[in-house]
From TrEMBL:
InterPro entries for this protein: Metal_Tscrpt_repr, Metal_Tscrpt_repr_sf
Name of the protein: Uncharacterized protein in bioA 5'region
Gene3D superfamilies xref list: Metal-sensitive repressor, helix protomer
Gene Ontology MF terms in the entry: DNA binding; metal ion binding
BP GO annotations: regulation of DNA-templated transcription
PANTHER family reported for this sequence: TRANSCRIPTIONAL REPRESSOR FRMR (PTHR33677:SF5), TRANSCRIPTIONAL REPRESSOR FRMR-RELATED (PTHR33677)
Length: 69
């Protein structure tokens, strides 16, 4: 994000700023996917208690809905 801010302050070209924004977006998307996968693995698939599995699954549904807005 600081790189984007510096590029804007330096009046970099639009294409350069957009490339940096795309890179940040890709990094955040990748991190989001990893955290979602870890949550599903640990709190849904490996959870022995059905109530806890259900709760973790419902939490993930809420997160996915918010993410896709």
């Amino acid at each position: 994000m600081e790189g984007i801010e510096r590029a804007l302050e330096a009046e970099a070209g639009c294409a350069e700023v957009l490339r940096q924004i795309a890179a940040v977006r890709g990094a955040v998307s990748g991190l989001t996917a990893e955290v979602m996968e870890d949550h599903l693995q640990e709190h849904v698939l490996a959870e022995p208690a059905e109530a806890a599995r259900r709760q973790a699954g419902e939490e993930m549904i809420e997160v996915i809905r918010a993410y896709l807005k």
